[in-house]
Amino acid sequence: MRDATNIADILTERYGFDSEPQVRLFNASATYAGVFQALEHLRDRVGAEDNVVVYFAGRRPYRGRGRRLSWQQQPLCAAALRYLDKEAPGAFAVSDLIQYVKRTVPNNANQLPHAGVLFKTGDLDGEMVLM
Question: How far apart are the first and last CA of the chain?
Fold first, then answer.
């Protein structure tokens, strides 16, 4: 929950995203029905000129020494937060953030992030720019 909250807070406070239409689903509310209802809610509230960010993260417990379970921060989220909070220039394209994450995550974790185009979405090859 902390990762998603941190991402939402940075986008709202630093980049001017509107906090009103945000929908945050955690734990028991993040079911198939809950996600579907949240997407319908967003569909009814956003217009053709609006940007929508969907952040999905899942975690699994890490069992370190002994029997205690701890939760690891997702390397992808850590890289995105670092870029948004400290590395980003005054204005940047989302593709810059994606390239940063793709470059830094494999250096710090056994993960290889992928990014790509959402096909047949009807966009005109635009890109979201954060300032």
Answer: 25
Q: Check: pTM over 0.90? Answer yes or no.
A: no
Any residues with CB less than 8 A from the CB of 27 and at least 6 apart, and which? 1
Backbone φ and ψ of 85, nearest 5°: -90, -30
Taking only the tens place, the pLDDT of each residue in 20-29 is 767 888 888 8
Q: How far apart (Å, rounded) are the C-alpha atoms in residues 115 and 17?
A: 22
Q: Is the pLDDT of residue 67 over 60?
A: no
SS3 of 64-80: CCCCCEEECCCHHHHHH
Hey, what's the torsion of the CAs at 103, 30, 47, 80, to 10 degrees? Answer: -20
